[in-house]
Design goal:
37% strand, four-stranded antiparallel beta sheet, Immunoglobulin-like, alpha+beta, three-stranded antiparallel beta sheet
Length: 107
Amino acid sequence: MRNRIFWLAAVLTAVIASPASAHYPYCTCALEDGKVACKGGFSDGTGAEGVTLDVISYDEQILVPGKFGSDSVVRFDRPSGEFYVLFDAGPGHVVEVDWRDIDGLAP
């Protein structure tokens, strides 16, 4: 009986003490064929299909509302002026990409 209790306690401790598996969002953007293409996903290999990606001006106006497609990519025309891309998959899963960090757009 003691042996069973010991092993049960050991297993429960291991389960409780094991870290939660975290997956972090990523978003990369580049100029492709005259459009900005942003690809998003998560560090565990899952895509971002259906997740919100908005293009926002520095004065917080949504310039291009969007969602990732089945290929986890959003394509849009480059807005005039300064902007950033906001990939928002919920609390703790937000990525911002400033227009200066988009490959092919930087001045």
